[in-house]
Amino acid sequence: MSITVNGIEELKKLAGSDLGTSEWIEVTQERINTFADATGDHQWIHVDPEKAAAGPFGAPIAHGYLTLSLFIPLFTELLDVQGVTTKVNYGLNKVRFPAPVKAGSRIRLVGRLAEVEEVPGGVQIAVDGTIEIEGGSKPAAVLQSLSRFYA
């Protein structure tokens, strides 16, 4: 369920608010292989199911940066900012990967709008995100993402 705000002033009012939880998405072996092709990272732990089954996790796992990249589509399920001219991914603060995402697992995002700070021409938001693994005891990723919205 997405929260929609119209403009920067409405966005400022959400500072400190929980944004909710996205839907689950599956991290398939095909998605992992496509990411490996896009990045050139073909380490066996990601792309060789037979060898990975005998490895430390018992299955192929998603690249940490693949898990991190899925923050964007998951986040867009939580917050829709209308009435701005430009939306920019500004970067990340702390990022950790406490647990691997095995091929075939499902993940979702739990988000909180930690702060909204004015910058020239707009605002910068900090979103605290936890990417959960369905049935997992630890999250796949814990991060703080920075985005900028310009009027």
TrEMBL record:
Species lineage: Bacteria, Bacillati, Actinomycetota, Actinomycetes, Kitasatosporales
Protein name, as recorded: Enoyl-CoA hydratase
Family of this protein: Belongs to the enoyl-CoA hydratase/isomerase family.
Top-level division of the source organism's lineage: Bacteria
Pfam family, one: MaoC_dehydratas
Limits of the MaoC-like domain: 15-118
